[in-house]
């Protein structure tokens, strides 16, 4: 990982929580338990949700209120609501948790890159001890340096069948994918890491995610697995000059499959069992269904 990326991870005082999609009730319960107080301001950012974002925000607000978190708002940033509207920025400044819903991750970068909103979000993450940013599905992918936006099944082993785009860069040096096992996304993450081996590839299965706390290895939580693909030691790649639709080849990837309580140092890329890097967090109780 480049030095500036490592410095960014080490200096951040806030916490990031990312989920691979699926049932997010247990994640919401975990987030509520992580708050300094249940009464703090929570904002639901529905930018990724193209259809019925207001309904999505209401559902999440209801779920948080069932967890005794009464102060839940809806940050609307989309075609009709600019990111840098004064009221939106003021509410962002007052938030202790910003939760990003799923949908289309490119909408998050389309509407947030190069905005004061994103600058404030990053500043709060860097400087505020109790600040939490969380995202599920597309809302998770967009938080990384780069995100996968295209690639389906075995065809992702072919040149031209995978697309990667810049993310919001709150998790530097990382290429993040979600719905990983369920949607057969191993090939596209392998392809993307082969093309950019300086990035650490992370695939989040559904109902499974990572907690990234200050000065600690990232911790896995949830029911399934997190797959980590490290291409730093790749000894051979046929990608340079390979024609469109030809099959890719790469040798000497490092691959880790991590389960709940296990950890990965995102700077050194070293995995740990829970006992090696501190005791794993207890599983969160399942939140009431909406």
What is the structure about, briefly put?
The chain has 290 residues and is of the alpha/beta class. The protein contains 8 helices and 17 strands. It has helices at 3-11, 25-34, 53-66, 86-94, 105-112, 116-127, 138-141, 186-195, and strands at residues 15-19, 42-45, 72-75, 97-100, 132-136, 144-150, 163-166, 171-178, 200-204, 208-212, 218-222, 226-230, 236-237, 250-251, 254-258, 263-264, 271-272.
Could you explain the architecture of this structure?
It is built from eight helices and 17 strands. It has helices at 3-11, 25-34, 53-66, 86-94, 105-112, 116-127, 138-141, 186-195, and strands at 15-19, 42-45, 72-75, 97-100, 132-136, 144-150, 163-166, 171-178, 200-204, 208-212, 218-222, 226-230, 236-237, 250-251, 254-258, 263-264, 271-272. By secondary structure, the protein is an alpha/beta fold. Helix 4 (86-94) runs parallel beside helix 6. The model is unreliable at 278-290 (pLDDT under 50).
Number of strands: 17
Radius of gyration using CA atoms only: 18 Å
- The outline comes out as globular
Quaternary structure state of the chains depicted:
single chain
What level of helicity do the residues show? Answer: 25-40%
Strand content: 25-35%
Number of helices: 8
Structural class: alpha/beta
The ordered string of helix (H) and strand (E) elements is HEHEHEHEHHEHEEEHEEEEEEEEE
Described by strand count, sense and barrel closure, the largest sheet is: 9 strands, mixed
Overall pLDDT metric: 92
How many angstroms does the end-to-end distance come to? 41 Å
Strand order of the largest sheet: 3-2-4-5-1-10-11-16-17
Unreliable stretches: 278-290
């Amino acid at each position: 990982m480049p030095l500036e990326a490592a410095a960014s991870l080490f200096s951040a005082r806030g916490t990031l929580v990312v989920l691979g999609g699926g049932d997010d009730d247990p994640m919401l319960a975990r987030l509520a338990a992580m708050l300094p107080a249940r009464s703090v301001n929570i904002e639901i950012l529905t930018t990724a949700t193209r259809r019925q974002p207001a309904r999505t925000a209401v559902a999440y607000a209801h779920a948080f209120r069932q967890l005794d978190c009464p102060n839940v708002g809806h940050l609307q940033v989309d075609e009709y609501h600019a990111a840098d509207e004064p009221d939106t920025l003021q509410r962002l400044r007052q938030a202790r948790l910003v939760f990003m819903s799923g949908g289309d991750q490119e909408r998050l970068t389309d509407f947030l890159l190069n905005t004061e909103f994103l600058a404030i979000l990053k500043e709060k993450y860097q400087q505020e001890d109790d600040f939490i940013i969380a995202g599920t599905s597309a809302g998770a992918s967009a938080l990384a340096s780069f995100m996968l936006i295209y690639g389906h099944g075995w065809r992702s082993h072919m040149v031209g069948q995978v697309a990667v785009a810049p993310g919001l860069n709150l998790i530097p040096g990382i290429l993040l994918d979600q719905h990983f096992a369920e949607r057969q996304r191993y090939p596209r993450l392998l392809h993307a890491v082969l093309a950019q081996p300086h990035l650490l590839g992370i695939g989040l299965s559904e109902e499974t995610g990572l907690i990234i706390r200050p000065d600690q290895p990232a911790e896995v939580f949830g029911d399934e697995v997190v797959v980590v693909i490290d291409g730093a030691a790749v000894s051979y790649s046929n990608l340079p000059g390979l024609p469109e639709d030809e099959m890719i080849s790469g040798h000497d990837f490092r691959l880790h499959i991590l389960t709940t309580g296990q950890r990965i140092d995102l700077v050194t890329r070293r995995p740990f069992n829970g006992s090696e890097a501190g005791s794993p967090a207890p599983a969160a109780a399942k939140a009431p269904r909406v």
